[in-house]
Amino acid sequence: MARLRFLLLTAIGLVIASTVAGPAATADPPSPGDPCTVFHATTDDVNGRTLWCNPTMTGDHSLVWQYGGPG
After folding, report:
1. SS3 63
2. Would strands 63-66 and 50-55 be described as parallel, antiparallel, or unpaired?
3. For the chain, which has fewer Cβ within 10 Å, the N-terminal or C-terminal residue?
4. For residues 45 and 30, is the Cβ–Cβ distance under 8 A?
5. Residue 16: how many CA atoms within 13 Å on its side-chain side?
6. CA nearest 43: which of 11, 67, 7?
7. Strand pairing partners for 52?
């Protein structure tokens, strides 16, 4: 009987813990112009198009996500 009570309390605890924790957070994919940190890295945008991490052509030449391949 004690084992059944233990299993029942464990199951209830897991259900409560999963509802409190909620679903895992997901990051949104980057858009063109968003900053990036690794030169020539690639990723996909929300539409599945490839973005490359390249320096801007104007200003301080910081790295941003861009279409068009390595620059």
Report:
1. strand
2. antiparallel
3. N
4. yes
5. 6
6. 67
7. 42, 66
